[in-house]
Design brief:
By secondary structure, this protein is of the alpha+beta class. A 5-stranded antiparallel beta sheet has the order 1-2-5-6-7. Strands 3-4 form a two-stranded antiparallel ribbon. One of its GO terms (cellular component) is extracellular space.
Length: 222
């Protein structure tokens, strides 16, 4: 995850010790840029003087870092999409698994569907190989009972998964593009992509024939 540091002026720490206390506690909590935005708002409004440990539910997407961020906060609480959520465990799955092949084929089909209106400029992509596949368990919450255990032991799931979620990395032809996607399986034949399909290698001038910023990572010009 990106490194982020905060240095507080000594006079602020002396005058508002609760704000500093909350900031230090939040170092070990799930935070996001939305929280930094709320922190800046607190600074401009001079509201860090009202920092408190009282938590309002439902949790807002952003919480000032000068306020108490709950240990139990999940990615869903923080407005972080599951594909970008760092709070999950995973187990490797064989890339030769038939189910994983269906998942990868589904994602490639989705990419080609997104490119369909540009078919006169962009070639149709085909799956080349599945590089890595994982079954993921996400939306974890902090477990109060295991503070002294290994990092991932500090988390529990509030409820069991009803659907399977996979993280797959694969490449396609003819562009040699590598893509990563989080896919949810609702049953053996129905899938949905959670978030967006990410490109993990450079595309250079491969998509110079189009101007759509969202689709440039997918298009391989004819």
């Amino acid at each position: 995850m990106p490194f982020f540091s905060v240095v507080l002026p000594q006079n602020l720490k002396d005058k508002f010790p609760q704000a500093e206390y909350n900031l230090r506690k939040n170092v070990e909590r799930l935070t996001s840029p939305f929280d930094f935005y709320e922190t800046v708002v607190d600074i401009f409004k001079n509201e860090y003087s009202h920092s408190t440990n009282v938590v309002q539910y439902p949790l807002s997407r952003g919480i000032s870092l000068f306020r108490n961020i709950p240990k139990q906060r999940s990615c869903a609480d923080a407005g972080i999409h599951e594909h970008n959520c760092a709070c999950y465990t995973s187990e490797n799955i064989s890339v030769n698994n038939t189910g994983i092949e269906r998942v990868a084929a589904f994602v490639v089909t989705k990419i080609n569907r997104d490119l369909y209106h540009l078919r006169e400029k962009c070639v149709t992509l085909t799956l080349n190989r599945i590089i890595e596949a994982k079954l993921i368990h996400s939306q974890l919450r902090h477990n109060e009972q295991y503070d002294d255990k290994k990092f991932m032991h500090n988390f529990i799931k509030p409820k069991e998964d009803t659907n399977k979620r996979f993280l797959i990395l694969f490449d396609v032809l003819p562009s040699a593009a590598m893509f990563e996607a989080t896919v949810e399986e609702t049953n053996a034949i129905e899938f949905s992509v959670l978030g967006h399909v990410s490109r993990t290698n450079r595309y250079g001038n491969q998509s110079s024939c189009i101007n759509d910023k969202r689709l440039k990572i997918y298009c391989f010009c004819k």
